[in-house]
Amino acid sequence: MSTTRDLLQRRVGPGVVVALSRISWPARLGAGLRRATGRRGRVELFFAFDDPCSAIALTELSGRLASRRVALVLRPVLERGIPGDPAVPQKRRYAIEDASRLARRAGLELGRSDPLPPQDARFVAEWAASAPQGPSLERFCLAATGSLWLERGAAIDRDRLATLWREQFGQDPAPADGPAALARNERLMKRRGPYDVPAAWVHGRWYFAHDRPAQICEWLDQLGWRAS
Length: 228
Known about the structure:
Layout: H1 4-11, H2 14-21, H3 25-36, E1 41-47, H4 52-65, E2 70-76, H5 88-105, H6 122-129, H7 135-150, H8 158-169, H9 178-192, E3 199-202, E4 205-208, H10 213-222
Parallel strand pairs: 1-2
Antiparallel strand pairs: 1-3, 3-4
Helix pairs in contact: 1-2, 4-5, 4-7, 6-9, 7-8
């Protein structure tokens, strides 16, 4: 059976379909209702601790959203990308080059020059995936990604990351549902549409968060969540 989108493509042409996809009134209406009921805006960031561009995106978005009534909802993932992609090693190497460029643009410096194997970061991803959303999680993730990517001689140090966790949460990490929470984030990312990280889902639109922080803020401006 043909879908509505298929019928539109055949009968009125692809230009109309593209135009319809750009309609923003549902998001504007939803944003207005959220503000009227005292709720904040939301930027969901899907990121990976083993990804250098995620470290840049998290740092940039945290700073840019600090002056807005917008919650930064953190969704760490491990599995992402195209299943069976033979170019993964090359992409991970390029991600470091890309992150180095983005870091310089943001006044930062990448402290690691080699890819971090995803499985080496599984434990910290499970910690963060199982934690409650809020300022403590945001501060921990900023400190952890900084330790992994933005400090000179950056390295994965479980003891140090556990210390950072205790500084924010007042107890040792005990992610009993960590693997399940991580898997939920990965399923949600697939439903949202992005296939790789760092990706931000912002009231009906998604962006590659390391390349589009300014565009994310422009969309928030349009929705009424301007910087104060």
